[in-house]
Specification:
The protein is an alpha+beta fold and about 400 residues long. About 25% of the residues lie in helices and about 30% in strands. Strand 7 and strand 8 form a beta hairpin. Helix 5 crosses helix 6.
Length: about 400
């Protein structure tokens, strides 16, 4: 007789390799001073010396940037590929990777029209004098973006995407599994690779140390290295004045890879995980998930309160500061709490301190996990006893 194994037993007795690392990471590449209209106005007037702020001055920069990309493509002998709206870029990159035999370099450059945040100049008219004047505003437009698909000796395949319109924001996409593969090759550690992971490794501890060693400084070095090689929209005068690219995380994926000793263990693991969740998809249970009506346009105070027509929460949170054990009290026996007159209700609100990230990349403020940052309950003007809130930094 064969006894079924639980998920815990499968993970405890049949995992031969386990690694945890950053998977895909998509990062913003931007000049911080140019993300607000006020900063753009200062760039145009204070840095470029314009009398009136107008984005027409940066039009030659855009033309020169696009020309430098076309010149780079011609000099390097790489293809400039026009990318369609629904075209899979990964399939194109995979074909170029099969033909690429160098340690690092540019695979190809892609060009696609995408929506982006841009800065424009509007003509406005003074109501008092009737004279027209330029006014810088934020907007969006469909403009050309240039994808530089590259291979790095330390990070493997990645891409850097530039917007061709001022303020030339960009995106950087890396893969932590590819970084681990490159580092294992450099150290001469034998391993067997998967499409997006590692199947086996001669030194699992070294593999995990490599994965944990990928930090913000290494990612920043990767960006600076390739900004120096690829066409750059800002000249030396701009960069020396402090207009330099910075990084922030837009999207991060984290992978826990657990390799089992036999394929049948994967089947057992899968069946045990979904066994308790099969009933949710049955026809008789579907209404529990999808049969929820949202009353519009009035906003609801509680996201799950779709059974009533008014915006009060279905399950209000109550606090009894004067009772160790809630004893209840006199109330209307013939009516529910949500049906009473609003003047008879004593609502509670939760206040949460704002959490400020001290760094833009791969870090979190130390006080963000402190108990003082947890929501507080307020009942009228009285405050539920709890740890004192820390003063803002």
């Amino acid at each position: 007789m064969t006894l079924s194994q639980s998920v815990c037993e499968v993970l405890r007795d049949h995992v031969v390799l386990e690694s945890e690392c950053i998977d895909r990471m998509y990062l913003n590449v931007y000049v911080p001073q140019l993300q607000r209209v006020g900063g753009v106005v200062w760039y145009l007037r204070g840095h470029l010396g314009q009398r009136f702020a107008s984005t027409a001055t940066v039009a030659p920069k855009t033309v020169a940037f696009v020309a430098s990309i076309e010149k780079f493509v011609a000099e390097q002998g790489v293809d400039l590929v026009s990318l369609g709206k629904h075209q899979r870029k990964d399939d194109i990159t995979r074909q170029y990777l099969q033909q690429f035999d160098a340690d690092e370099g540019v695979l190809y450059v892609g060009r696609a029209q995408e929506k982006a945040r841009v800065v424009r100049t509007e003509r406005r008219r003074c109501a008092r004098t009737g004279m027209s004047y330029p006014w810088v505003v934020d907007g969006s437009a469909m403009v050309n973006h240039y994808y530089f698909y590259c291979v790095d000796g330390d990070f493997g395949p990645f891409f850097l995407k530039f917007c061709s319109y001022f303020p030339y924001n960009a995106k950087l996409c890396i893969n932590g599994n590819e970084y681990a593969k490159c580092q294992l090759r450099k150290r001469g550690i034998p391993f067997e690779a998967l499409d997006n992971g590692i199947l086996s490794c001669a030194n699992p501890k070294a593999l995990q140390r490599i994965c944990e060693g990928l930090d913000d400084k290494k990612i920043d070095r990767l960006l600076r290295k390739w900004l120096a090689r690829l066409p750059h929209p800002f000249d030396r005068h701009d960069r020396s004045a402090g207009y330099r690219y910075a990084l922030s995380i837009l999207q991060a994926e984290f992978a826990l890879t657990q390799v089992l000793d036999r394929p049948v263990m994967g089947r057992i693991f899968f069946e045990q995980v979904i066994r308790e969740n099969l009933d949710l998809g049955r026809p008789g249970q579907v209404q529990l998930i999808f049969d929820r009506r949202v009353n519009r346009p009035r906003a609801l105070s509680h996201p799950g309160d779709y059974r009533r027509g008014h915006p009060f929460a279905a399950c209000g949170l109550q606090a009894f500061t004067h009772q160790a054990v809630p004893q209840g009290g006199a109330g209307a026996a013939d009516r529910d709490h949500h049906q009473r007159h609003p003047r008879l209700r004593r609502g509670t609100t939760a206040a949460q301190l704002a959490r400020v990230a001290s760094h833009r990349l791969c870090r979190q403020s130390a006080h963000a996990r402190d108990r003082a940052d947890q929501p507080r309950l307020r009942l009228g003007r009285r405050r539920v006893p709890g740890p004192a809130a820390s003063a803002p930094g």
